[in-house]
Specification:
Universal_stress_UspA, globular, Rossmann fold, Rossmann-like_a/b/a_fold, single chain, Universal stress protein, 5 helices, alpha/beta, UspA, 132 residues, 5 strands
Length: 132
């Protein structure tokens, strides 16, 4: 089984882009398992991962393509959570969606995508998902 960990934020456009990029990888969908990880930076209402619209949309796209999907949630630093889950599952690939930020914005706010790329030896697929 080919294991993929995909970091999904609140953007439905980026979640959809991630799912579609995964379905376009030339491999047997029945031999792929994707774990969609959503990191709650703030969650005062106590929402669960299956209540996040971007996660639900990504799951729909993947399941329609015949890909097995699992859901995970965490809280804290998204890049750390993605890297930790990829290690725990011995993932073959990590998939994230970049977002457009100015160089200053990246310095001030950091970049999950950059942290994931620099923090792993695993293959990382970076998708482009425009803001909604």
């Amino acid at each position: 089984m080919y294991e993929i960990v995909a970091g999904i934020d609140k953007s439905e456009a980026r979640g959809t882009a991630i799912a579609e990029a995964i379905t376009e990888i030339p491999m047997d969908a029945s031999q792929v398992r994707v774990t969609l990880l959503h990191d709650f930076e703030e969650n005062p209402e106590g929402a669960s991962v299956d209540q996040v619209a971007s996660v639900r949309r990504a799951r729909e796209v993947l399941e329609e393509a015949g890909v097995e999907v699992a859901l995970e949630e965490s809280s804290g630093e998204p890049a750390d959570a993605i890297l930790r889950l990829a290690d725990e599952q011995d993932a073959d690939m990590i998939v994230v969606a970049g977002r457009k930020r100015t160089p200053t914005g990246k310095v001030l706010f950091g970049s999950v995508t950059q942290s994931v790329i620099l923090g792993t030896d695993r293959s990382v697929l970076v998708c482009s998902g425009e803001e909604e």
